[in-house]
Amino acid sequence: MTPYLPIVPQVASFRPEHGRCLLSRGLQWSTPSTASLPLALSDQIDNWLTRVKPSSTPDNSIKLRFQRCDNATKNGSDLPDESYRLTIEQHTITAEAASEAGWFYAFQSLKQAVDAVWHQPHPSLPVGTVEDYPRFPWRGAMLDSARHIQSVDWIKGFLDRMASLKLNRFHWHLSDDEGWRAEIRSHPQLTDIGAWRAQGNTRYGGYFTQNQMHDIVAYARDRHIQVIPEIEMPGHCNAALAANPQLACTNETITILSPLERLPMSQRPDRRAFCAANEGVYQLIADVLSELADVFDAPYLHIGGDETPRNTWEQCPRCQRLMQQEGYATTDELRTHFLRRVHEIALTKLNRTTIAWTEKVRDDLPDEQLTHAWFPGEAAAAARLGRTTINSNHEWTYLDYPSNTSEARDRPDWMIILPIEKIYHFDPLPEGLEEKLHRLILGSEAPIWTEYTPDEASLDQQIMPRLAAFAEALWSPRLGRSYDGFLLRWDAINRRPEPAHPSQPAAPATTSI
Question: Is Hydrolase among the key words of this record (predicted)?
Answer without folding.
Answer: yes
